[in-house]
Specification:
It is a single chain. The termini are far apart. By secondary structure, this protein is mostly helical. It has ten helices and no strands.
Length: 219
């Protein structure tokens, strides 16, 4: 890598100071997307649009504006994230091909665990490991937000467009390098999230989840 662990964490510090209080707004957005998923049957386009906004934010506000200062590859990562944002916006927001419905089976439980890990356990684990704000990775940065996205996709109604899965799954592999080479231990959950998503999306929905999905898609 062209940077050290200290330089990597320092980027988080500069980002957190510069965008404050966006971290709280992004957390509220995530909670709103979960609420829409659970209680607004016609809200799939809003969920897809919110996910598109998160991925565009990570591309511009993190990769382009900050990570590119220590890693030239960040420009490519940013373009990749913009492609992910476009997939959510186009396929979910515009074409309405990405639907979400509550799920109580294995997929639903795994989705809930990933969402809780991204929003709650991830920052708590970082703090327990000695990472302190502002160098503590916050929601809105790529790794916790990717885990959140994969958790939300557990509730997507099959067939899930491959284009919306591609970038989050790819980043679950790329981003997990930080866990092994830079000591950001909580990012190990990123690789686990990617593997669980691949396995769970092949798992059939529970009867209750399939029924809710049918009502939301009109089938």
């Amino acid at each position: 890598m062209p940077f050290s662990a200290a330089e990597f964490l320092a980027v988080f510090g500069r980002y957190n100071v510069a965008v404050w209080p966006a971290q709280f707004i992004l957390n509220l957005l995530a909670l709103a997307l979960v609420a829409i998923l659970l209680w607004l049957p016609t809200g799939s386009r809003w969920v897809a649009g919110g996910l598109a906004l998160l991925w565009a934010w990570m591309a511009v506000a993190y990769h382009f504006a900050f990570f590119s200062r220590i890693n030239p590859a960040a420009w490519g990562f940013g373009l990749l994230f913009l492609a992910g944002a476009l997939a959510f916006a186009w396929l979910g927001g515009w074409r309405d091909r990405l639907r979400f419905a509550p799920e109580g089976g294995v997929r639903g439980w795994l989705g809930a665990v990933l969402i809780a890990y991204a929003l709650v356990a991830y920052p708590l684990l970082g703090d327990a490991l000695g990472q302190r704000y502002p160098e503590l990775p916050t929601f809105g940065l790529p790794c916790p937000t990717t885990i959140f996205t994969l958790g939300m996709l557990m509730f997507a109604v099959p067939p899930v467009p491959r284009a919306v899965l591609a970038v989050p799954l790819l980043w679950s592999a790329i981003g997990s390098v930080a866990a092994f080479q830079l000591g950001v231990v909580q990012d190990g959950g990123l690789l686990v999230a990617g593997l669980l998503t691949l396995a769970a999306l092949a798992w059939p929905r529970s009867p209750q989840g399939a029924g809710r999905a049918g009502m939301r898609t009109g089938t």
